[in-house]
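thread from #wetlab-drylab

HS: before we spend reagent money on co-crystallization trials with coenzyme A, can we at least see a predicted complex? here's what I'd submit
DV: go for it
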Amino acid sequence: MAAGIDDIALYIPNLYLEASDFAEARGLDPAKLQRGLGVEQMAIVDTNQDPACLAANACLNLMQKNKLSPEKIGRLYVATESAFDESKAMNSYVIGMLEQVYGNESFGHCGGIECKFACVSGSYALYDNTNWIRAGEAEGQNAIVVVSDIAKYDLGSSGEVTQGAGAIAMLLNDNPRLLAFDPKVTSTSIKNEYDFYRPFGKETPIVHGQYSNLLYLIQVKNALADYKEKILKTGLVTLKDDETILDHIDYLNMHLPYSNMGKKALAYLVRHEWRSLPRWKDIIAEIGMEEPVPKDPRGTIESVLADAEFMAKDHEFTKLFTKTEKYAEVYESKLASSLIASKMVGNLYTASLYLGFRSSLEFEYQKGVDLNGKRIGFGSYGSGASAMVFSGLVQSEYEEVVKDMNLEAEIGVRTKLTLEEYEELHENKRNTENNIHSAKKEFILTDVKTSPESRGERYYEYIE
Ligand code: COA
């Protein structure tokens, strides 16, 4: 049975911080943000927004554009790493908000949970719900998977340049117009790690940025190796000599904590895949430099990062490699369009990969490419750490959905924050009513109870 993504909707907060303003305030070269990391703007939440109302707004957009009534929804999962309760699942708040629009108990039949594994949990939620459909349990109903996050790092930390906020809601069913997932190929890797984590009660994560960059690459590479074995076994792809699995994936979407991480990941994976192929000889000749190896090739991530000579040489080699004609063609055709939205919005943690997918569909379609039958690969990564690699085929009805995609219009008119406003919001110095953006046709947070018997209860309102 086919199963996959029928439609996709987003909600991005209207407030944003301009990267150049941020760079000036922190004494950074704006080029580091814009060229080095690929960050142009970062979406920031208002005082009356939290990850649950971002998720509910994305869900409502999805349901309204598809004229879906609640009885058509059998599962509603929320994947997030911005949870604000240790027990009550975020999807229960989302259901509560949606019922303000669709009627009390209108979602009473609907199941679902909140999923957590840093930025990869949305991919696990998609996989599990796809299998619910494949197993025949959905009986004609749809599942909604919402990925929603507020990427917030400490003021003045190196992660502060990689913030953002937003939610993506995906409609899954057995007759998807957009993408049907390839069966029996989804591959995972997992390892107990401390590259990025957020202990109980802490609003911002503890991050080892460079460590997490390298761990991401290794974990995705491991999952890709498994994916390759599986897809060859299914017979969906057969490889000729001098071919790699990446030659059979038309588009690649990578987890994007900042858009240039997608570039880093693609270069790493392509290097890894091409290294053993005859074409590598020509690449090395074009670069004019042998590929460097660490002093201790079997060492740890720490030992590789501490090997300054190797790191510098590898940086130089990567730069030259990405300039080769063969690689540049792969980058332009398979990845570039997926990075556009991330530059405008910033880091969405769980939703970053799917914002990239949306971006790729919209901007490839605008180029006039016929996407029907194209294979789309996904490289999902969550700190802590797990990666998931999977793929799907664009379906013949995709145009019905993609022709109306317009990222700028869907984000709406944006308000640029001053550094002062941003810092006040960041440090929670404004109360809920002291918002900047005037909400319209969306859910907002109106109250968080503080009395001992109802501490943490959250109340939301739909603003007409
Ligand atoms: N002009 C142009 N580019 C510049 C520059 C300048 N003036 N200064 C630096 N850069 C480039 C660097 O060369 C580097 O590019 P490269 O990766 O291609 O080499 C890039 O900008 C980032 O610089 P770097 O020195 O690595 O930044 P950093 O030490 O401040 O850390 C992160 C960057 C991403 C590690 C940090 O922001 C972070 O911890 N983020 C949160 C965690 C995260 O996103 N992890 C990712 C995996 S999930």
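DV: The chain has 16 helices and 17 strands.
HS: ok that's useful, forwarding to the group
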